[in-house]
Amino acid sequence: MTTHPNSKTHSERFFWLVVGLGAFFSVLMLTRSQVAGDQLNMLARGWLLVTEGEWIPFGLPTSAGGKAPGGLTALLVGLPLLAWQHHRAPALLILGLQIVAYVMLDRLVSRVTGRNGRLLFAILYWLSPWRLYHSTFLWNPSYMLFFGALHFWSVFRQRHRPGLWPSFLLVLAVGLPAQLHASALLLVPISVVLWWRGYFKIHFKGAALGAAVVAASLVPWSLAVLRNPALLPSGGGLLASGIRPLSYVTRGFGYWLRLDSLAVSDSMYCLDFSALVGPSASRAMAPLLPAVWWILGLLTVPVAIWANVRLWRHAKGWWRTSSPEASDREWLTGVVRWSFLVTLLACFFSPTTTMSWQIVVVLHLAVLPTVLAGEALLESPRRRLALRGAALYAGLTCALLVAMSLGSPMYRCGGYRCEARNVTHPILRSHHPMLDELGIQATCSFEIDQPGGWWPDVLPEAATDSPTIRE
Q1: pLDDT tens digit string along 71-86?
Q2: What's residue 466's pLDDT?
Q3: For residue 380, which of 116, 13, 16 has the smallest C-alpha distance?
Q4: What is the percent of the chain where pLDDT is above 70?
Q5: How far, rounded to the nearest angstrom, does the alpha carbon of residue 202 sit from its chain's CA centroid?
Q6: Across the chain, how many H-helices and E-strands are there?
Q7: SS3 per residue for the chain
Q8: Distance of CA 3 to the CA centre of its chain
Q9: How do residues 359-395 score in pLDDT, each as one tens digit?
């Protein structure tokens, strides 16, 4: 099919409009981002590094007890605070990393799918509420988007031949983010399976060099564990609780589809507009919000289902080793298929119920089925209808992003939190200069000096001048 020149011009303008909207919402949401418990734990590590020169060699508390291994959290949070002593400074670094990630992914996806796929990827990834939510406030899963993209870039660069630096970066893309959040470990089985099935080659010296850097970064943590074994997680591992129920797989499958749609999670959609329109108007709007969520899901989840069915339809011999003569599109389709299966398997063996932030590291892969399917539609006689559908999807996305930017818990002060602990302001049992020096109290004040309240795990308390756990 020959595309009219005017159609190409409209598509190009549409693309840059989407890129501009994604940048606008990124800045808007970052400037409204808030601080809850996880953010205080992360900021405490960066603050101690900057103000006292003390590097905490372990990360945040884990669901299995103990602390996450490695001191990368303190570095990634502390270094931005050197330039700007504000709680939003580390979020600026996250956004910068996400911009780099999108540029890398955009070049790869446009190489495979052309101009049309590039437009759809901008809508489904760059403008995605899932991406924006996980790249505009400080949270350890937010770093996963960058490392997931770096991992994919490293795999693509080694499709035909191994490379020293791509292999080095691939190992770093797996080993370093594991110090920030355990969801990065999903990249390990994906890497093994893709290498086993011939989707990329590995440069063993480069991989060894990367492993050496990761191991060196864990030396301070290893020494801290020798002094205090309580830092080690107490869980029994992936298989500790036996065979997982089927619901673990179905939740993983559901989130794979939802990442490719506007059916966002409860904490993202916990909307409260009391500060803008007043409590009475906000209460009047509340009964309508669940209906709007269902409408968004009914309009967009079926698209993701259709795209994933299309991805597997007529997939003869998909399990065979990838051929070096395969086209870029065939290669990319195989990568998405295997990554999907590995993600489901990881959910099956997970020691905890699957949550959205545990697979956001593969967001770029989860949206590709619709990119591939939609790109074929844009090359067909139904191009005009497909463009209208893309425009409608982008419009619905922008409407949802406006609501999230103004009413989602991590982008407003106060209001209802839908009983979600990860977005709730904890009541603090003491006060600390960090709360004022980083603008935390000025942005949205915490209730402090309450006996029996919560406290960041490494921060000294004013009353005792001693932290809960320090090494």
Answers
A1: 999 999 999 999 999 9
A2: 43
A3: 116
A4: 94
A5: 26
A6: 20, 2
A7: CCCCHHHHHHHHHHHHHHHHHHHHHHHHHHHCCCCCHHHHHHHHHHHHHHHHCCCCCEEEECCCCCEEECCHHHHHHHHHHHHCCCCCHHHHHHHHHHHHHHHHHHHHHHHHHHHHHHHHHHHHHHCCHHHHHCCCCCCHHHHHHHHHHHHHHHHHHCCCCCCHHHHHHHHHHHHCHHHCCHHHHHHHHHHHHHHHCCCCCCCHHHHHHHHHHHHHHCHHHHHHHHHCHHHCCCCCCCCCCCCCCHHHHHHHHHHHHHCCCCCCCCCCCCCCCHHHHCHHHHHHHHHHHHHHHHHHHHHHHHHHHHHHHHHHCCCCCCCCCCCCCCCHHHHHHHHHHHHHHHHHHHHHCCCCCCCHHHCHHHHHHHCHHHHHHHHHHHCCCCHHHHHHHHHHHHHHHHHHHHHHHHHCHHHCCCCCCCCCHHHCCCCECCCCHHHHHCCHHHHCCCCCCCCCCECCCCCCCCCCCCCCCCC
A8: 36
A9: 999 999 999 999 999 999 998 888 889 999 999 999 9
Query: What is the pLDDT confidence band of residue 238, given thresholds at 50, 70 and 90?
Result: very low
Residue whose entry in the numeric block shows the structure tokens 């005792």: 464
